[in-house]
Design goal:
Length: 243
């Protein structure tokens, strides 16, 4: 399975050369078993990972020893890029489900900026979209109700899963424990469970095991505290495309 390039195609029309460069940027694919940690906070780092398949979490350990999951990664993401500015890994990466990644040495991404400057610019833009997502999360943490927080998370997952064909009839598999969901929205697992039940009772969502269906997507979008971010397409400052 090739590396999904939808995040970049949302920013511009990739040339065949750019698409091929992205797909072949990483080393050989590596299968990560469920629960496997393949990068630990504090590890010496020499590159990042293309996320090809499965669900992966990014977490840090607080001074009191508690683990905090900050992000759930989906195919098409680039993992461990915040560590590019550090001598050691900024976070721990763990496979939530069986997952597939491909390692990219820093030297290779450096060559990309030289040989394909527009693709390098798109990489930078994709990283800024991640920053926007974190800004939005920080903006509403502690400033929104549990229902609003959960609505934002479900709408965000729906948006991110749709381009990789993982949404059918507004439903998708959600392999996250209530503890992980609680970390992502700043709630206890008990509060997450109570809020999910309340949203089911209101006809906003339905649930069968780990499969969630968004029954009233417009209402959930309205309930989300912030509107979705729409990336700018074909920004005029992008360098010329490689042919």
């Amino acid at each position: 399975m090739p590396y999904p390039t939808h995040r970049y195609r949302a920013l511009c029309d990739l040339t065949p050369a750019e698409e091929n460069a992205l797909i072949n940027l990483g080393d050989a694919e590596v299968v990560r078993r469920r629960g496997q940690t393949f990068q630990r906070e504090g590890d010496v780092v020499s590159g990042f990972y293309l996320h090809i398949r499965g669900w992966i979490s990014s977490s840090i350990v607080l001074r009191n020893g508690d683990r905090l999951i900050q992000k759930v990664h989906l195919p098409g993401d680039m993992l461990a890029t915040p560590s590019m500015v550090l001598p050691h890994a900024a976070d721990t990466l763990t496979a939530i489900t069986e997952a597939v990644t491909a390692f990219v040495p820093y030297e290779r991404i450096g060559q990309l900026w030289t040989e394909m400057p527009r693709l390098g610019a798109l990489f930078t833009t994709a990283a800024q979209m991640e920053r926007l997502a974190l800004m939005d999360m920080l903006a509403i943490t502690g400033n929104a109700s549990a229902k609003e927080q959960l609505a934002r998370l479900l709408v965000d997952l729906h948006t991110r899963l749709t381009p990789i064909d993982m949404v059918q009839d507004d439903s998708f598999h959600l392999p996250l424990t209530q503890e992980i969901i609680g970390d992502l929205v700043g709630l206890t697992a008990v509060h997450v469970n109570r809020t999910i039940r309340a949203m089911e009772a209101e006809g906003l969502i339905s649930r069968q095991g780990h499969r969630f269906r968004l029954l009233d997507l417009p209402a959930l979008r309205q309930l989300s505290p912030l509107p979705p971010r729409r990336p700018r397409f074909e920004a005029p400052w992008l360098p010329a495309a490689a042919v």
